[in-house]
Design goal:
Order of helices and strands: HHHHHHHHHHH
Keywords: Membrane, Transmembrane, Transmembrane helix
Distance between the termini: 18 Å
Strand content: under 5%
Radius of gyration: 19 Å
Organism: Mesorhizobium prunaredense
Structural class: mainly alpha
Number of helices: 11
Protein name: Glycerophosphoryl diester phosphodiesterase membrane domain-containing protein
Pfam families: GPDPase_memb
Helix content: over 70%
Number of strands: 0
Shape: globular
């Protein structure tokens, strides 16, 4: 349990968000990693094994393209989108519950996530489309838009404002803190890249199957961090902007 009587921070601090994020994960390691393996790691492993078999089949004379392979790829993308949305919403709810000093319930968090599945997917699609177009134009606009909407899902989960209302609220909360948010995510992205580079070397040492299993585990851990961190950032931003305590955040669910 954590204390819910928190001093109002003067600004968004990267170190505090990192500490709180990993503290939430460590207190709920079984719930977080269990869900991440189920909804992210295992699907990733199965798909990568299928791709590997596809690639080796191509080398032995199998056709490089087939309708069946195209259909499987599309289905995998759609299923991955749904699973990622459920995982993110579940971990966001669990993180905020933990910060409120409660013991997150897997069943309750999953139930809530499934009830918000379509809005979460809607936010993911709109953010990806908007930021993607920004990246195609000048890169910087894409980064700005992505940072602007980076806590839209926690807003949706906690405040139930709908897709566009949550994106607008995220824009308001992140205003004035986007450089700090940018630095926070740059550190996370660099850490992921380093891990992936190390992992690529393990293919030659341990073989493909072992490397794919390790990659699936790394994907699970990354999914946990990138789902919990926005929830912690949301709480931090509300405390910075509004002086709102975690207790007040929890009143919405009372």
């Amino acid at each position: 349990m954590v204390s819910t009587t928190l001093e109002r921070p003067d600004k968004f601090r990267i170190g505090r968000v990192f500490n709180d994020s990993f503290a939430v994960i460590s207190r709920n390691i079984v719930l977080c990693l269990g869900l991440a393996v189920l909804f992210s790691g295992l699907p990733t492993l199965l798909y990568q094994l299928w791709v590997w078999n596809w690639a080796t089949g191509t080398e032995t004379g199998a056709p490089e393209f087939s309708v069946q392979r195209a259909i499987v790829t599309i289905v995998v993308m759609l299923v991955s989108m749904v699973l990622a949305a459920i995982l993110q919403a579940t971990l966001v709810r669990a993180a905020i519950e933990d910060l409120n000093g409660k013991r997150p319930s897997m069943g309750d968090s999953l139930k809530m996530a499934i009830s918000l599945l379509l809005p979460v997917i809607g936010i993911a699609l709109l953010v990806s489309l908007g930021a993607g177009l920004g990246f195609m134009l000048l890169i910087v606009p894409g980064i700005i838009l992505w940072l602007r909407w980076s806590v839209a899902v926690p807003v949706l989960v906690q405040e139930r404002r709908g897709v566009f209302g949550s994106m607008k609220r995220s824009r308001e909360l992140t205003k004035g803190s986007r450089w700090a948010l940018f630095g926070f995510w740059i550190i996370l992205i660099i850490a992921v890249i380093v891990i992936q580079l190390v992992l690529s070397q393990l293919v030659m040492v341990f073989g493909v199957t072992t490397a794919l299993i390790l990659d699936a585990l790394v994907t699970s851990v990354v999914s946990v961090v990138t789902s919990v961190a926005p929830a912690v950032s949301y709480v931090e931003l509300r405390q910075v902007k509004e002086g709102t305590s975690v207790d007040e955040l929890a009143e919405i669910f009372s």
